[in-house]
Amino acid sequence: MNSPAISARRIGVLLVNLGTPDSPQTGDVRRYLNEFLTDGRVVDMPAAIRYPLFQGLVVPLRAPKSAKIYQQLWDADRGSPLLFHGLDLQEKVQAALGPGYVVAFGMRYQNPSIEKALDELRAAEVERIVVLPLFPQYASASTGSVQEKVMDIVKDWWIVPSINFISQFATEPGFIASIVARGRAELDKQHYDHVVFSYHGIPERHVKKGDPTNYCRFGSCCDTLTDRNQYCYRAQCFATSRLVAAGLGLAPGQYTVSFQSRLQSRLRDPWLQPYTDEALKEFPAKGIHHVLAFSPAFVADCLETTIEVGEEFKELFEEAGGTHWQLVPSLNSEPQWVEAVADMIRRK
């Protein structure tokens, strides 16, 4: 007697990026900032302080200024780069993985939401889910927040499938090779005196809170990535930089690792150093006049890459006497990066 055929169950894949306003208008930017800056993993203050401070003071002041910057970033036809590059990546990863997978895309803040993306996977009756937060280096404020949100949503499902998280891919060969290829394309065009790897900053206390053995000293301990500091954001950033630099044939003195986007002026708390905006001002006096800049904490072009690194830092560098500042484009949905993502998922 023949057994009835059992239909193949597919694997669900959830790609997640940070988020974006629905439009560059002040109201939509305010809603985005309210959700983002009141996340307890982003601003780790007690809720009784965090909500009134940010919803009542910081966000109302910041939203109109941020809206003007988003208007510079916005594509007239496709909208937010972080969104359309994410949707492009979803489509191409789906094609690379084939019919045995269902790939969904969501944002931690605003739309398309993680909840909507998970609902798509649940409706597809996937056997299990692989969650890939699109943040190469683990930080509680990014990857940790995505993981918490996913688990908060699925806790209400009657049937919860197996869920695997890819917590970081700072040293993944495919990721490194994709960045090296992007950098090599720029280096082939002209000579650069120096390379900068600029990462999104986080408060030093975030690193210490994830360091139960008190190993971190914010110094040479980050020069190697070990079991003891494998989730140290700073150590991961340095590890990514070393591997990319090696792929480009750079000696240690030919590149700088630094951190951007700090809110120290408001929160009066030290963030990871050195600060990119301060380091670059010193380059011309050292004979560095042509700089190639990477943003390896981001896999898609966004405000922090295109505007902050690509335009604002360029202006600061030139004001200090620099000649040429060039941003290496993010990986977005380049074929080599698509295959690297698909490979990580297959191995999970």
From TrEMBL:
PROSITE patterns: FERROCHELATASE
Transmembrane region(s): none
Listed Gene3D superfamilies: 3.40.50.1400
SUPFAM superfamilies, per database record: Chelatase
Catalytic activity: Fe-coproporphyrin III + 2 H(+) = coproporphyrin III + Fe(2+); heme b + 2 H(+) = protoporphyrin IX + Fe(2+)
N-terminal signal peptide: none
Keywords, ordered alphabetically: Cytoplasm, Heme biosynthesis, Iron, Lyase, Metal-binding, Porphyrin biosynthesis
The keyword Lyase belongs to this UniProt entry's keyword annotation: yes
Pathway: Porphyrin-containing compound metabolism; protoheme biosynthesis; protoheme from protoporphyrin-IX: step 1/1
Main location as per UniProt: cytoplasm
UniProt EC number: 4.98.1.1
PANTHER family reported for this sequence: FERROCHELATASE, FERROCHELATASE, MITOCHONDRIAL
Protein name as annotated: Ferrochelatase
Classification lineage: Bacteria, Pseudomonadati, Bacteroidota, Cytophagia, Cytophagales
